[in-house]
Specification:
The chain is α+β, with helices and mostly antiparallel strands. The protein contains five helices and seven strands, in the order E-H-H-H-E-E-E-H-E-H-E-E. It has a seven-stranded mixed sheet, with helices on both faces.
Amino acid sequence: MPVKIVQAVPGDAGEILTVQRAAYVAEAQLYGDPFVPPLVESLEQVRKAVETGVALKAVEGSRLVGAVRGRLSGSTCRVGRLVVVPDLQGRGVGTALLTALHERLPQAEAFDLFTGHLSEGNLRLYRRLGYRETRRERMDDHLTLVHLRRTRPAPQG
């Protein structure tokens, strides 16, 4: 069954939070930190993010299988919480979500995001979609955040 990317609504917050927690368990294990922000975010915080930003969800039939958030700040979109259910990771759902977010915000000149330095799968995905590393931010002994940016090509003519 094909995955469809559609706008999320506040009523999706519970399902999004469930997928988010499932997706970030592996990250928490990778970094030895059970308190990574996506795992401790509340239902109300997710609902507010869906209400105030651009939130897309990936659905397969009636199942929510992924989500991504974007927030426009001037001409830059801050991308956050790209999540895919563990059983579908590596099958193009994350690519579809990010591509849809890029298309949904044509006014954005750049897209910024970050991930942990050990998250090789995430880094490969972002680089494949045109993101380039802009800086690294050491958070503590076990985590360095890698900040990446994707800029829109200048219009021709």
